[in-house]
Inverse folding.
């Protein structure tokens, strides 16, 4: 089992590696209508109503679980990240892997070491995860 120190060292290495591997140009979406979706790797960013139901505010800004470089989708400040509790209306089917919900009163960025950073306008965004229809498992970068 990894210790906290092992995890901290692993994350530091991922961040160091990210500096040399990012090649994609940033993407900019200053205005998204409710129902529109943007993809960043294996996550989908759904623009939802500002009153979209959600849980408590989370301490972590990471939007995909895991410690690999591929899981480092991060909602940068000043956004706030909340527990996702409600599927967006734009998702299809019942097997949607629900992620956190992100809110911001101003423009913010979702960064990633391997994919293009995505800058979004003020609003509320529900994250879902890509699913492999053959295995019904969440796809991981």
């Amino acid at each position: 089992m990894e210790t906290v120190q092992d995890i901290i060292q692993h994350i530091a290495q991922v961040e160091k590696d990210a500096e040399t591997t990012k090649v994609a140009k940033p993407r900019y979406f200053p205005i998204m209508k409710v129902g529109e979706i943007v993809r960043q790797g294996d996550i989908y960013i759904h623009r939802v109503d500002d009153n979209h139901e959600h849980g408590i505010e989370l301490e972590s800004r990471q939007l995909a679980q895991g410690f690999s470089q591929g899981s480092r989708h991060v909602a940068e400040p000043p956004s706030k990240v909340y527990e996702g509790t409600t599927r967006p209306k734009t998702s299809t089917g019942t097997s949607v892997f629900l992620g956190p919900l992100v809110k911001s009163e101003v423009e913010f960025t979702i960064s990633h070491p391997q994919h293009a950073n995505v800058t979004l306008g003020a609003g509320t965004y529900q994250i879902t995860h890509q699913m492999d229809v053959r295995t019904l498992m969440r796809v991981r970068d």
Notes: Helices lie at 4-21. The two ends are 22 Å apart (CA to CA).
